[in-house]
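Quick one, T. Sequence first:
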Amino acid sequence: MNRSARVSSNEVLVVGATGFVGRNLVPELIERGHEVVAMTRNASTYDPPEGVSVVEADLNDRESLRGVFDGVDAAYYLVHSMGESEDFMAHDRVAARNFVSAARGSKLSRVVYLSGLGGERVTLSDHLKSRREVEYILGTGAYDLTVLRAAIVIGGDSASFRMVRQLAERLPLMITPRWVRTNCQPIAIEDVVGYLVGVLDTPETAGETYEIGGPDVLTYGEMVIRTGDLLDKRATMVPVPVLSPQLSAYWVDLVTDVPKVVAHPLILGLKTRTVVEDDRIRSLVPIELTPFDDAVRRAIA
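C-alpha cells:
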C-alpha cells in the first residue's frame, strides 16, 4: 500500500522500519491494533506485513520528508548512521534535525527513541555521545519525547550480539583486554519491543527517559563464554592489560564479519559500564523479562 492510498487519521510512523529493531516492532504494533506507517529509503526493497502502509523518504534529504507526518499521531525513531559512514555522528545529527524540522506544524504528539545505555561521563564513546546528542535534538521538537536507553540487544540480527556469537564460535582461546570485565545488562529483542509498545500505550511515560535491561548483569567475557556454552563451543579468555580497545577493534576485524564501521564504535564503547541504575519503567510497563540464556537460544535458533 503506498502513501497516497492511506485514509486513516490515527497512525504510528516507524522511522527505521527495515532495521533490526523496526522489523521486530512493526508486527507487534499491528498485533496491538495500531495502524502503522513504515518509513524506508527504498520502498521497492521492503516487503511490509499485511496492513502496513509504506512511505519512501530519507532523513538526510529534508525535501523527501515533506508530508511524511500528515495524519501521524506518534512516531518511533529507530535510526542511526553507524555502518553507513565513518562520520556517523554528523549524519545522526543532521537526520535528527531534519526529523524535528519536518514534524514542525504537524499533529505529531508522541515520539519514542531507542537510545544507548551508559553513564553521563566524559568517557562515553563516540557511539554513546551520538545517542545522547540525538536525544537532545529530538527533545527540541513540539511533541512529547520518550527515550528508552538499552545496552546490547540480544537477537539474531543484532550487530553487537553477532560479534559476541562469532567470537564464541571461532576462538576457543582469546587474549582479551580488560574491558571484558566491564558489566553490561543485555536485553532480549522481544523485551525491547515490549517496552517500545508499552510506553506508547502508557501516557505517563510521555516526556520521560528510562533505562531498560534484562534480568541478568554479566561481564562481556561472561556473555561470550555463556554464548559459547550454548553453541557447544567452549571458550577460554586470558585478559591482558596491554591490549587496548582500539587494538581489540582490529583484532575483531579478523575474527568476525561485522563491518568495521559498525564494530569499531561498538568496541570502543565497551569500556563503559552499561547497567540499569533507574528501573522506574518496571512498574509502568510490567513485562516478564527474558533470561540471558533463553534470549541467546532464541537468537541462535
